[in-house]
Amino acid sequence: MTKKFWRQGEPFVWATGLALSLILFLTLLLFYVVLANGLAVFWPKKVALATLQDGRSLLGEIVQEETIPHTEKKRLQFKIGNRDLYGLDFKWVDASEITTLTYPKDVHVLERQEYGNFYGYLSEFEVKGISPPVSGSNSLAQTIAALEDRKVEVHLLGKKIANLNRRVELIDHHLAKARYNKEENTPAIAAMQGEKQGLKTEFEALVSILGEKSAALATNQAIFTDANGQPKAIALPNIVRAYQPNSMSFFAKCAYYLERLRELFFDEPRESNTEGGLFPAIFGTVMLIFLMSILSFPLGVLAGIYLREYAKDGWLVKMVRIAVNNLAGIPSIVYGIFGLGFFVYGIGGGIDQLFFPERLPTPTFGTGGILWTSLTLGLLTVPVVIVATEEALGSIPPGIREGSQALAATKLQTLTRILLPMASPGILTGFILAMARAAGEVAPLMITGVVKLAPALPLDGVFPYLHLDRKFMHLGFHIYDIGFQSPNVEAAKPMVYVTTLLLILIVLAMTSTAIYLRNKMRQRHSVVDV
After folding, report:
1. Strand order in the sheet with 74-79
2. Would the pTM of this model clear 0.85, i.e. be above it?
3. Tens-digit pLDDT profile for residues 98-123
4. CA-based nearest residue to 102, from 48, 46, 44, 45
């Protein structure tokens, strides 16, 4: 009986099932940790007022509670904010030191452009050029909203200045090219120099107007006091959002949550990337994956087709297959070094020498950019696509090839009309694996083009619209940057979970789409079982 048990492989079946269960459990645990910590970040938390035994008071959100090691005492971690007053965002307090813990209704939470959140009480306003603020709990939000038109006006002036600066930069490039070609004394060059001077005059006038409007806007401020009555004047334009969480209804909290989600998806980051939106990083991640797919998928499929269908078996083909399999296991940082040397300095430097010599030594393509990063990741993922294509074509029974050729079909017709449609589900499986791996890679990106903050997107409304030489932001690097390079790790931790959740959702969305297409192709072209 025991021999039969081992002969039938029952222990291996149970071991395989146990391993699968363990993998599923760890995967679900990963999702639970990320979801639990990521989804709750933007929900407005109550602000507690703690009165301590020494008479001091403390305002802040209770972040966590733990038992002090080797004792039975407990302590609370408060997010106290007010970094410009205290120099820190978080503070631990022993529970035994707290005499009272209340949640006052009139506490304000201010999300600011800098110095993090401010927790305190509104004392008075100083506003100019708008109607005096109405009294009531919502007076601060109404006053900030009344200044929105002025903030938009300042923002539009900033965009005009940026456009003028871009036009001056373009003229400088044309002038540099003329100097390089020794064509300086021409009417066209004189006209460009006159246009540049006019743009500079307009630029200086707009900068002066912007400074005046910004200074006038900054005179509108509100006076707040912290838990101990210490006053603090805060310029209203510096306040991104103000709310009173202890007096908010459930629907008001839902509206706040949706507004924070809108900011996350469509706004730019602030506070050293620990606050604000992630639109540039989301855009850069998705665009990188698409460019990588366009560059790697056709090459990998063609290479797999050649190795399986056209190449004659021999020592050379065997060596190529071994090399392809080994390339799939090389550390990604090695690809990054290769991309830096070959694509950036090699090809990019050559492009600069041929097409942009007048701009040297300032590089145009001879520096990191989204094009070189896409090519590097494409090279990294090509072996996966090649192996998947070969395996998919090899799984098709030889009788199908023979039957097609017996009906007078050429090898190309057999390949394009029968073999590739039948192998498409397996090929797409390799593409899914390649896309998922590329989305999570960070090391090659750090060397070939990703940056902490990108001032302009690789795709915009300025001719030639697609700027492959530009650097970009990426969600994976954003996680590394704020999680391990930020000087204020505790404050950055919530954004780490949010960014991780976003990256997982993007990968799931793109791979789910590919899986759906794979299943549709499998249903349409599966004829093996007929």
Report:
1. 90-94, 74-79, 57-67, 48-52, 98-102
2. yes
3. 899 999 998 999 999 888 899 999 88
4. 48
